[in-house]
Write a structure and sequence with these properties.
Helix content of chain A: 55-70%
CATH class of chain A: Mainly Alpha
CATH topology of chain A: Serine Threonine Protein Phosphatase 5, Tetratricopeptide repeat
Structural class of chain B: alpha/beta
Helix content of chain B: 25-40%
Structural class of chain A: mainly alpha
Radius of gyration of chain B: 19 Å
Largest sheet of chain B: 6 strands, mixed
Oligomer: heterodimer
CATH class of the largest domain in chain B: Alpha Beta
Number of helices of chain A: 8
CATH architecture of the largest domain in chain B: 3-Layer(aba) Sandwich
Strand content of chain A: under 5%
CATH topology of the largest domain in chain B: Rossmann fold
Number of helices of chain B: 8
Largest sheet of chain A: none
Number of domains of chain B: 2
Chain lengths: 218, 333
């Protein structure tokens, strides 16, 4: 268990999230076939490659800002339709948080993730309930904030966030898509988990695994 | 069933097709930088440059519209997926001269996100860039909800008139005005009769019964306004054209450009038969078919179907439409 998140921890979080996405990419494509063109897994693999590579910056500063900015820019450069724009914007938004100038304790980590969400919210009108990655992300960040406010460690907070993200992603099964290409299928999307929400949940699961050194159950 | 397509590794489709495009039209386009298609002979720096972006798999769109009199650089994304914003910024910087850049974007979620992020980056860097969003598909949103409407082949006349204005030396503000006015005067409705295979995944992008067609289907199998029994060419036009005329509020005596865009597997024979019926209806209503174009401009692999597009023309638009251009997809001399 670590007290703060610096370069070493972020690097582990990114590599762990990339590994989690690689494990489940086939499921992401399968879900996307129900509501989109079935390539979400392939896109997330390309994003995972950039996330994993961006995590290693030998000989550079340890401040989270630089690493987050680098990861965000690399992901934004992936030709991945909406997904790479959204994930890239999220990490660039995190990098903009003043807290990211030094290693993050739990409240600073919550603030950084909130800054990522704020950046993302400027680019998309999607909100919880619209059957998008927001259904996983927003509750995950609310959990981080709640955990920080009650004095939990970064590992405990991220564990809670991963649980909330997973529950949020599962909640999309009952929802009807209102954004992206899936919205044109409307009611037909009900009954399928949103692939974007699941990939966001996998990201948080990966982060949690890295910070707790404990494999989450599927 | 295995996918019957002449491809190599799925991840190499985009660079390989762009390499082929540059080889097929060496006098018109070149491949440069990170998979950017640029004009073989660049425009002088005192003129406005047109930049466009979008997913691949829709050939000849969008890179096929690069050339004299139309687009200066296209940023091709992955199959059916928008490119990353940093590559669009690279493209803008490549052609940004004294007159600035017009970014022409189709309204699809990924394309618009990428374009908005690019515009923020460009403004931060002090670049002179304006954006035009094309959203003319009447099936995907009501008239009161234009931001819901997708961009289809209506991007073609927008490229053409804005590109011609840029070539003639019009300012960025003027090119934007012309593009916006054309965009407001164009409407498209699509119909699909057979599905396509996603060339990366090998899966059909939608299912459609043997005896069915779907009016309003989008470029990626997005559901339209309803499925119905397959109809004849005339009956199909009889359903679709009045919807377009009503949405654009076309009046007797007005002049139209009509584009019939094949989705990939619909033959030129069929496109011509459809155009014939369009002409008959327009004549009966006292509307002039001033310009007509049939062919494959924006396709979706081997999908069968068409995009029927109408645009209201006036003297200025006709001049710009008739102005010379020389691109892989369209040549006007």
């Amino acid at each position: 268990m670590t007290g703060t998140i610096g370069q070493h921890e972020l690097s582990q979080m990114f590599q762990s999230a990339a590994a989690r996405i690689r494990e489940r990419h086939a499921v992401l494509s399968e879900l996307d076939s129900a509501s989109g063109d079935g390539d979400h897994g392939a896109t997330m693999l390309r994003i995972a490659d950039q996330l994993g590579d961006g995590a290693v910056r030998p000989g550079e500063s340890a401040e989270p800002k630089a690493i987050l900015h680098d990861a965000g820019w690399r992901i934004l450069s992936v030709d991945g339709g909406a997904s790479s724009s959204l994930y890239g914007t999220f990490f660039l938004g995190m990098a903009d948080a003043p807290e990211c100038a030094r290693p993050l304790d739990c409240p600073a980590m919550a603030a950084a993730f909130e800054a990522g969400l704020a950046g993302l919210s400027k680019q998309t009108k999607a909100r919880p309930g619209d059957k998008t990655l927001m259904d996983a992300l927003v509750p995950a960040i609310a959990s981080l904030r709640a955990a920080a406010d009650t004095g939990k460690s970064v590992g405990e907070a991220m564990h809670d966030a991963a649980e909330a993200a997973r529950a949020g992603a599962e909640s999309t099964i009952a929802l009807t898509a209102r954004f992206g290409r899936a919205k044109f299928l409307g009611e037909k999307t009900r009954g399928h988990q949103d692939p974007g929400a699941l990939s966001m949940a996998l990201l948080f699961e990966g982060f949690s695994i890295a910070l707790t050194n404990k494999k989450e159950t599927q | 069933m295995p996918m019957k397509k002449f491809i190599n590794r799925p991840e190499n489709i985009v660079p390989e097709l762009l390499e082929g495009l540059a080889l097929a039209f060496p006098d018109k386009v070149r491949l440069t930088g990170s998979n950017l298609i640029v004009r073989a002979v660049p425009k002088t720096k005192d003129k406005v440059a047109l930049v466009t972006l979008g997913g691949s798999g829709h050939e000849p769109g969008l890179s096929g519209f690069v050339g004299e009199g139309m687009v200066d650089v296209s940023v091709a994304g992955e199959i059916f997926a928008a490119p990353g914003a940093p590559r669009v910024l690279e493209a803008i910087k490549l052609v940004h001269g004294d007159a600035g850049v017009l970014l022409v974007v189709l309204n699809h979620a990924g394309d618009l996100l990428c374009a908005n992020i690019t515009m923020e980056m460009a403004q931060r860097e002090g670049l002179n860039v304006k954006m035009i969003l094309v959203h003319e598909d009447i099936s995907s949103g009501s008239k009161n909800n234009p931001e819901e409407r997708r961009g289809l082949v209506g991007i073609l006349p927008v490229y053409k008139v804005a590109g011609a204005a840029a070539e003639q030396g019009s300012s960025l503000q003027r090119c934007l005005q012309i593009a916006e006015r054309m965009e407001r005067n164009v409407r498209t409705l699509a119909v699909a009769v057979n599905t396509a295979t996603h060339p990366s995944t090998g899966h059909a992008i939608f299912e459609l019964g043997d005896d069915e067609m779907e009016i309003g289907m989008g470029q990626h199998g997005e559901a339209g306004m309803g499925r119905m029994k397959l109809k004849s060419a005339d009956d199909t036009v009889d359903i679709m054209l009045p919807m377009l005329l009503e949405d654009l509020e076309v009046k007797e005596g007005e002049e139209l450009l009509v584009v019939i865009n094949g989705a990939g597997a619909t033959t030129l024979m069929e496109l011509l038969i459809l155009l014939r019926r369009v002409s008959q209806i327009l004549k009966a209503k006292g509307i002039k078919l001033a310009r007509g174009k049939v062919g494959e401009f924006i396709t979706t692999q081997e999908q069968a179907g068409v995009q029927l597009m109408i645009a209201r023309l006036d003297a200025e638009f006709i001049d710009l439409w008739d102005a010379p251009c020389d691109t892989p997809a369209i040549v006007v001399r």
